[in-house]
Predict the structure.
Amino acid sequence: MMKKIIKKTFIFVFTIILFSACETVDYGDTNVDPSGPSAAVTSQLLTWAQSYMPSILVEEQSILYMQHITQGQYPGSSRYETLTNNYSSWYTDPIQNLNKIIEINSDTDSAAEALAYGDTNNQLAVAKLIRAYMLQYMTDKWGALPWTDAFQGIDNPQPRFDSQQSIYSYMFTEVDEALALIQTNSAGPVGDIMFKGDMNKWISFGNSLKLTMAIRVSDVDPSTAQSKLEQAYSSGTLPTTNSKNLLFNYGADDLSDSPWEDNFQTREDYIMSNTLIENLRSNLDPRLFKYAAPARDSVFGNPAFPGALDAGYVGAPNGKVNGNVPYFSFITSEIIYDPVYPSSIYTAAQVWLTLAEAAKNGWNVGGVSAADYYAGGIKASMDFWGVDAQEAQDYIDAHPYTGIDDIAYEKWVALYLNGPETWAEWRRLDAPNLTPSIYASDQRIPVRAAYDASVEDNNSANYADVISSQGPDNLHTKLWWDVK
Amino acid sequence: MIFSSFSVSLKLLILNTIKSMKNYQVIFLTFFANISFIFSQTTINGLVSDNQGLPLPGASIVEEGTSNGTTSDFDGIFTLEVSNNSSISISYVGYQTIIISSDGDFSQIKLEESNTLDEVVVTSFGLSREKKSLGYSQQSVGGEQLVKARETDIGNALAGKIAGVQIVGNNSSTFGASQIRLRGSDDVLYVVDGVRIYTPTDINTDNVADISVLKGASATALYGPEGRNGVIIITSKKGTSGKANFEIDQSIAINQLAELPPYQNEYGGGYSQSFNTFNYDPSVDPPSWASFDGQPYPDFYADESWGPRLDGTLVRHWDSWTPGTPEFGNLRPWVPSPNDIDTFYEDAITSNTTLAFSKADTDYNIRSAISYIDQQGIIPNSKNKTIRFNLNLNYNISDKLSFITNLNIEDREMLNNPDQNYGNLGSNFNQWWQRQLDFDRLKEYEEGGQIISWNSRGPRDGRPLYWDMPLFGSYENYKNFNKNSSYGKVGLNYKFNEKFNANVEVRKTFHSYVQDDRGTTKSTLDPAFFSEYHARNERTDFFGLVTYNDRFLNDDLTLNARLGGEKIEETYRLLSSNTNGDLTIPDFYNLSGSKDPVSSNNSATRQKRDGVFLTATAGYKGFVYLDGSYRYDWNSTANPDANRIETTAISTSFLAHELLPKNQILTFFKIRAGISEAPIFPEPYKTTSVYGVGDLYQGSGTLAVGSQQENPNLTGGIRSEFEVGTELQLFSSKIGLDISYFDRADNDIPVLVPLDGSTGYSSIIVNSGKQTTDGFEIALNGDVIDGENFKWRLGINYATLSRFVVELYEGIDTRDLSTYTSNMKLQERVGEEWGAFYGRGFTYDANGNMLFKASSGGNYYYSRTPNKYLGNLLPDFTGGLTSNMSYKNFDLTLGFDFQKGGKYYSRTERYYDHSGLALYTAGLNDKGNPLRDPVSQGGGVHIQGVLETGLDANGDPISDGTVVDAYVDPQNLYGLGNLGNIYENNLHDASYIKLRTVRFNYRFDKNITNSLNIEGMSLSVFANNLWLIDADLKWIDPSELEKRSGYNWAENGTLPRTRSIGANLKLTF
């Protein structure tokens, strides 16, 4: 026994000495994480990216800026208290996913493997269109953003910023490229929860996006604006009737349902703004009864409608601490309590009102007058919200088209709860005239979002560049397209 | 069992007799192992005492040059079988070691107190070494110090006793354990009898014989990557040779609320000082409410206290609306709460019972113990039950081969471990509350099958808006936690001869956690849910060590060399699942009851490591020692083409007093120094990346590109540390001083580099950067009084630590360590001290005047400076003071600890004044008027400063000097948009001084214990967390701050701190 032990000990000592000679030890695949796949399924990357759409479509910050609604006991954005916003997760989450879909479908070998999830060109087109849509949302919020230098990881940790102008020019190219790729006879992408692979809807989406981008740059680059808008119009694919509206539909389950429902499931933080309520009331706009619900507790506004139908509709002062929320109107209950009530992406009302402006500019949009497009926009909006046609006509008769401010006002009303688009168009058109919250410590409605402090810290040279070209990094520096 | 009722000398005689009978067993065993005796044996019996003749239990008696040894029992008595003509060393922590020849007299061994002169301490791999030979700082705490206060938390037990140990993060209202921070890091390795364990909560403090704290890399070099931040080595109690021993230890303690924030009691709940008037509406209201028309009622839906003055007005309270209930229809006065928040918390009892059995002889040593801790929480219906079993067994198969095994098992069941964080009870009472609420009326949360709450949405909608009744969560939303863990080892030791020894061990540590949580289907506030979580940690270590001891040059030169290797495999597995949407079946809590598809996550984390090392210690004439070690480590987490790290350590100890003439002033003077390295490997899975799998979205699967970029080139890195120190003993060793200075540099170790999201990634782990840490650690001990009967000994320790960020990554100068919104961040910044607070702060002009911004209606807002440097997490110094007094059989021990400097952020305070709960939100202003009165009527808070008139180039506010001297409405001033938005306002100094432990111990006289037929009996009265003597906010103990993303820096919704007082009875048979 003793001998055995001595022998074993010598073997042990020998093993250690031998082992010490090893430069490396082979641990096989020990260091590969088994909790996720190493190869991607493009359909699932797409669903993940699309699940970020509600973050744009139900962005509270811009809705509060636009005074459609305000806050109850806890005013924040309605007092412009959010001083910086971080753009990072847009890049790392949905857009990285879209980049990966594009990368996989751009390489012949991997594209062949991804064919199971839809036609290669259609996958490319959809990924590019959503990417452009998100990029427009981002640049309309922050202005200049890293793009040409972006997505290089540690190889380029300090990307340069692209100006908003060059981002717009990139987006126009991307949208055209995507539209050219679409094959309506081939399979749309699997995992497309927005339009279920219906490529005609994606054509409509692409052209609506192009229309929106075009009108946005109309003050700074009228020639591009005109040509792009006319192309979008002449495609004949814009949602010009409510049945063709591009909506984002929600799932019934808690992880896929409407953010509004999630908000109001346990809390009552948002109430109607008196700006919207009083505008609708003074204009005898029947959408008042569709947009809002009467206050729960019996405090009365100053009725204007016949029969004091609007007596229970009470808006709250913007940015005030409105602790007694039962005294105020809420957003209509079908929006805030129905988990599947859809969000609008592009609607007929929005298209008609944009075309009204194009007509006013004298662009070639079918020879229809600005006034007719304007009236059509109002009709489409009223129809969408279930207002009786005669009531809509009465409203139009009472509010004839007189100029661009009417279009701006009607856009502000029609884009109800679509915060980013309302905010962008309000900044561009400088109408309607909204009074900043008197409860804010800085009584100016923001016209952009400021970059997160980490940009200044970790990308300082490029940050300094962007400030010198774009202007101070605060909430009041106007963006490239916002010239007036 | 021996029930002793004899005198000590008589007992020794009997022990001798029994001992000689036991020899027969020894011979039998050795015969069985087919090995015969080479040396003849003799049995020694003895008694160890201090120089006053008081017995020293737990003294170590070792046959020199062997592993043969024992410890003395409760009365200082021991028995040991030893070789003839051997040398026997008798040692005890804090006393001088004596060496006696095996044929000498052991009957009255008196040890002189020594501090460090010849102290034997536990070092790496449990090796006992003379403290004087160590070239690095090492400090010990004896197990007896833990037992008297029945401290179940090893961190608290060490608080204040060891220089450089900081205690962080466990609120005393919860069942969690605190953590020890050594030299700035709380990722400390705990080793129990050679076995590496996951968490200090695995340790049964009743079982601890000795805790040895190794702080620097020189001391921990042999532990490789895991020991880099320090190692706490715990040695369990062993049996006493020659006798059976049975111990019962029972303590009972009461844990009580210690402190709540000071509240105002002048104004009740509400958003404004007027009541609502009820307008009876027959179309919606019940006829029984008709008489309520025109009556006042408060804002039930408000969870703030800006309401009407508590002036006795008769109002309709929240509980007066439901027909058929006792308060229906009653108007009650609006007055301060007769039963306030303090009445909610319970006095929680903890019972701790330990039974231990031990027996040992020359050829075996066995000790087993079972403990049962039954602990209640101060929050109703919370409890924690822990059973721990330990077994330590050593036996000699032959005189050369011995077998070592130990096993520790824990079974823990916890119900409703109190949550801290935002949204829980602490946050409810201190952040969102109506001051007039009477807790006697809040006990019932269900009435006639309806869930009721004081925070209803209004008279016509009884559903709670933000809060249920305080007891609702405790009795409806159960959280169960169950832990099963075990750790232990089996080992063989083979002694070839006096020079060579070999040791092989297999060690295993295993943890399994099962946790569930539920939201009741009764709730009208939140959807019901159920979640379950299973986690399993496992590690297996194979370890081998060959030791060589020799002496040269006429024994002047001693050499001790070790060659060892280890192979470690770790696995962590997790399965967690939760329901979505709601639960479909009332009162049924199961994943299968989910309304929407269940979310699940399962993952596994594996890593493998190998290490080999060679270490040697040489000593010359007992006054100079040199230690060297060389180590290789391989780790599966590094780039496979470069997964080895090579590290070395050298340290020396020089005993300068040996060169001085013998004197009574400087009796001991040691100088030590060392340079060492420690390997640091990446976490698993950083060299490759996989897609993240998300939940189903609208029925489709989801995948995401990982947000952390993979780094295939990632390798391990090296920490280097220099340490120098001295140990001094003065005035016949009445005063001892130990000073260390260390300087550590982390160079190109794997670090997380934050990436701007536009790079496509949020971060990457790279070998980069440089951070340096240095500090002093000083311990001073001395006898204040050293009389015949009365002794008073004081120990004070003090440590500083500063950590500096030299480099992160080229171009990246800032990294968030943890954030609380983007307006309050804990950061590391290049060129600054680590742990900086940056956030939204106050603005002052050059003359120190506060800037205010004017707003409409005569309102003023505090001007704010964004991204302002606000302070630092690291304290200037930490320390403790321990006082031990003894008079005859009485001992009194006081343990203080303190910290100077450092900051923390309090979210509780942010809402505590925002919601009008704080004492200072009411009362009179400097004009003598109620400050809540309208400003136009003389109310308001007086503000003075200058007016903001623009911004400078950095966007920071500036003033033209216009004076602001005004009164401002407090509800606006303390509101979220004003002072509530100045995060600096809630940043506090983390300095504190605290009397953490007091214990008073009485050891019963022999004549009493003898008459009771027992061997020993002692009674202690103890108090833990007794007195927070000074702190910035007296209701927040900075040493109890919760953790936020790994750092104890921001308090989110803290529960009150508590104190416990108890008594302990220990009986030995």
